[in-house]
Every structure is written in C-alpha cells, then in structure tokens.
Amino acid sequence: MPENGPLGRRGFLLGGAVVGAGALATACTSNEPPAASKPAASQAPAAGSDNDKPGKQVTIGFSAPAADHGWIAAIAKNAQAEAGRYSDVTFRPVEPTNDINQQISAVESLIQQKVNVLVLLPNDGEQLNQVARRAMDAGIPVVNLDRVFPDKLSYRTWIGGDNYGMGVAAGHYIGKKLKDKGVSNPVIVEIQGIATLPLTQDRSKGFADALKSYGFGVTAKQDAKFTVQTGNEVAGNLLQAHKKIDALWNHDDDQGVGVLAAIKQAGRNEFFMVGGAGSANAMREIKAGGVLECTVTYSPTMASSAIRLARLIAQGKGMGDLVENQVPQSITLASETITKENVDAYLPLGFES
Fold it and tell me: Which residue stretches does the UniProt record annotate as biased composition, category Low complexity (predicted)?
C-alpha cells in the first residue's frame, strides 16, 4: 500500500475480532471485594449490541487520497457505506486528492466546520501531521487511518493493517509448502510495491523472517510501484532472468493484475504465487485454480471500522467486546491467509482491482 498517490495502501484486514461495533461495556468495579454470595459472573460486562442503536447525533469528517487504484477507491466506498448505516451520523467527506497542500486545506475546512470527529487517511503522515494536530488541539478527535502520523498527539486512535504480518503470512505459506514438497534451495522471487517505503520494508522483513524459519531465503526481489503496468514489466524481467522459479510473492493485488498477465503471456506454470491485500480479482483467480494460490490480506474494510470507531469516540462510548469504557488508542488488524479452501468466506470483503 503506498503512501502518496500510487503509493497507497494497505493497512489491514478486518479480522473478525477487531472492530465490530458492540455494546458499551456497562460493568464497573469498586474498591470493595465482591460478596462471597455473589457469583463471579456478576462482574462481567453485559453482552449485547446497544452500540448500534441510534444515539447522539454526530458529524464525521472524512479525508483520503484520490482513488488512483482499487484499494484506495474501496477505502472511500467503504467509509461512505458504513456511515450510511447509522441514522445518527452525518458524513462529511471532502474532495479526495493526491496533492498534499490540497489535502491540508481540505482538513482545515473540516476543522472550521467544527465536525465532531475526523477520519483521516493522509497522503503522507509526516506532511499532514501538523494539520491533524490542529484538529486535535481544536477538540476534534482524529481517527488516523492506515498511514500513521509520527506524533501521537496528532490522533486519538490509529487503525491499520499489519505490514510485517503480511510478510510473515506469505512467508509461512510459501515456506511450509516448499518444505512439505521436499524442495531444497528453492528459487523464491519477491515483487515489492515501492522499495523505499517503510511499509514495504516491513513486509519484506516479515517475509524474510518467516522464510528463514524454514531455512529458505529470497533469491531475487524488485519493486513494481503499486501499478499494473510496472507490475507487468517487473514480472516479465524476473521471468526472463530466472528460467525456473519455485514460488513468487507479489506484495500487492492491484499491481498483481500486471504480474499475472506477464506470467500468462510467458506461459509459465512451474511455480505458485502468493498475492497481497485481498482483491476480489485475486480471489477469483484463486477460486479458478492456477498459479495464484493464495493472497494475504490488507483489507480496505479498515475504513468501515474507522467510521465505527469515530462514531463511538464522538458519542463517548467504548467497544462492546472490551471491558474498557473507551475505544483503544491503537488497533492493528490481522493479516489473514486466503486460499481456495476459504476464499468464498472472504469474497464479500474483496475490492475490485
């Protein structure tokens, strides 16, 4: 997932656990020990889904980059759809843009409008840090989505994906399969997004660490800039350079459209491929059978979860499945492994490349 323009992505998958909106935990504790006659269960939070019931009216401001690829498009779509589920939410998005200064101006306009809470996926966390801080200083809680601000005073809650975990999931799938097949000294190829981004470096480190546990390493890697065209070119070059490949991990399913096209054009099928992010296109390829066997998630459903969290924060509520009375400060979503065996369960969450 990139950080600026085509750099966008990914931060997470809604792994069932995080982020459902459940009931506010109603139990409280006191300094007095519970009476012996009372069952321990009486101290447990009440179950239920009261958080979904209409509450205080809130206005949620929203800003994200322009939709120059499928994942970012799904971010905006998911946020708007989730806000529409609640009669007590007014959703106020600003024009999406890949221009840093324009996004800063757009966020400033939301501050001036005095929205109750702001959901912000910055083009660049470093460069938008100060405007997010201004929102917080103005009493507007910021839900920082995916690309994190360096200053924790600039956001109330961060929610995003696990880039290192993506690499670990891909590495374990590839490592185990090759080990089970008895392959020694495998040729493992890695196609990154943008090599200079911290998120890409985290993914590559997770991948290398997981492969190391099987005694394997990456033979060759090259970045493809998160674009279909570059994915096609890079995959073509790697296929020419390596006449035999055992496994390939492509970090991003959007650029994976180009990677798969290059593989098909070359007529290569001696290896298997793992994707990244969880696009519907990749899931359909997995379901059909072929070189793409698996993808590891970094789902844009995180935007839906960010809207839920923003609503709860603005209404002074907590997450129903937690004991605490307030929404957590940081939520990292799990990277899940999608294969032919479980793809039907994930297809509804896929985004179009």
Answer: 33-47
